[in-house]
Amino acid sequence: MNSYDLEAHPDSFMIRGQPTMIVDPADGKLPYQPWAAQQKTKNYATYYDTNAGCLLSGLPRTTAYMSDQMLLQQRPGYIFLVSGDHGYRIIKMDSSPHVGKSISLWNGDSRGHWEGNTLVIDSTNLNGKFWIDIAGNFGSDEMHVVERLTLVDGDTIHYRATIDDPKVYTRPWTIAVPLNRNKSKEDMWLESCHEGEHDSNRLLGAGHTPYPGWARIAAAAGR
Amino acid sequence: MHSTFLKSSTIVVLLVAALAVRASAHHSFAAEYDAKKPVTLKGTVTKVEWVNPHGWIYIDVKQPNGKVANWAVEAGSPQVLARRGLKKTFLAIGAEVVITGYQARDGSNTANGASVKFPDGRDIFFGSQGADAPPAPTR
Q1: Is B60 touching A (CB cutoff 8 A)?
Q2: Is the Cβ pair B105, A206 closer than 8 Å?
Q3: Does the beta carbon of A137 lie under 8 angstroms from any beta carbon of chain B?
Q4: Model pTM score
Q5: Structural domains in chain B?
Q6: pLDDT digits 0-9 by tens, A25-80
Q7: Calpha distance A1→A17 (Å, rounded)
Q8: Could you tell me the residue range of the domain that residue A155 belongs to?
Q9: CB-CB neighbours of A142 under 10 Å
Q10: Does residue A14 form part of some domain?
């Protein structure tokens, strides 16, 4: 699945259409609070995705629909290396509490455990500075993400994530996507994004400014 | 077996591929490039930047008035280009190419690339938009 829009979208210029990733609510739409639905539209018209300037992509985008990724298993935790946004996640496989609320992170603070063959990852402490897709959909610093990864056959992980963010949405919502094995024998190359990034300058020239993040848009919206 | 794959205490590597590659993860290219301005650029390579997140190919294009204009064409990431079989050695300085793409909205000699054609007939898609590739321009 591509990261253009979590919701269903048709083919358009340089964008491949695809069905919605959202399996709950049943209509496949993000259950925004009314002000937040307006903010999403404003986001796309006003700002550009922080990912375009080589910042990280947050959750669930980083793992679910961003890029090729390599899942490494080693004690005492799991490391997800993500070539697409030059970041990684360390999933602590224990029941220790999340870090304190004063700490906010692009990819959050994650704890994992097994439920049968399903790896369940609970993440909080996200910084609210990223878009969850290119279309301007967003979350707050209270976003709570629970991901469930199940190897359903030798080449496919069924990925499911439920996002609860009462500052922005009226109810929790869930996406489901397949993660398919890359059967080529190639290595995953390091992406040093800053070495040749020119798009953000052109986006600035087109009148877009960098997305300022949850704290500023919430203040501007009187939230 | 499946649970062993993920639960083993030994180091296990699983490489999975979301369909979208880095390039498609940027802001919509529609903000930068104009769907109504497809271009076909016939010229010679002057410089290649094999860099992340997008490579760049520079070519000198002879204009109808006889003057030469240098164009910058945005490409996929080095890893994407490698997967598509486009090697940097194909693009030696002075190599003749025909590139199709879409011009930047700002009107500069900048384009988002789609395909590159070589005199021997090789025709390689090298666009930066990855799995979100649009149809190549027809002219």
Answers
A1: no
A2: yes
A3: no
A4: 0.87
A5: 2-132 (2.40.50)
A6: 999 999 999 999 999 999 999 999 888 888 888 999 988 887 777 787 766 676 56
A7: 9
A8: 22-220
A9: 16
A10: no
